[in-house]
Design a protein that fits this description.
With 136 residues, the protein is an alpha/beta fold. It is built from three helices and seven strands. It has a seven-stranded mixed beta sheet with strand order 1-7-6-5-4-2-3, sandwiched between helices. The radius of gyration is 14 Å and the shape is globular. Zinc ion binds next to strand 4.
Length: 136
């Protein structure tokens, strides 16, 4: 279980731009890295093209997994947005969480996009701290 996920500012920006560009539709993607450190954000098309649901495009998800493998990285996170929904993982998100990774939810409770991380296991979610490291 990851309690603190480390990201670089660029990872935060890539995710935020993607979710903002796709709104009002939900957007999604994957985080690749090692242990608790993100190295790359991979944007994936939401095949549902829906404001309240997401399902990763199967081909893009497959390609992303291949890329992560080929680069010696691991899948350590999945992100998606709730353009008009809660800051937390929804009951559907919890029920469908298929990977033991950090689940990042982007929402805009105060009009500004913000992300929160959750570890979902056996139907329960625990908040994960998203630590954005300063640029070196
Ligand atoms: Zn959701």
């Amino acid at each position: 279980m990851i309690k603190v996920l480390k990201l670089k500012p660029v990872h935060w920006q890539v995710m935020r731009r993607h979710v903002a560009a796709q709104a009002p539709l939900e957007a999604c993607g994957l985080l690749a890295g090692k242990q608790d450190s993100v190295e790359t954000v991979l944007r994936v098309r939401n095949a549902e093209q829906s404001p309240v649901r997401f399902r990763m495009d199967a081909q893009e998800q497959y390609n992303a997994f291949e890329w992560i493998d080929a680069n010696g990285l691991d899948l350590i996170g999945i992100f998606h947005s709730h353009p008009s929904g809660p800051e937390f993982a929804s009951p559907t998100d919890i029920a469908q969480a298929a990977y033991e990774v950090v689940h990042i939810i982007w929402s805009r409770p105060k009009r500004t996009w913000n992300a929160r991380g959750f570890w979902i296991e056996k139907g329960k979610m625990t908040e994960v701290t998203l630590q954005v490291l300063s640029e070196q």
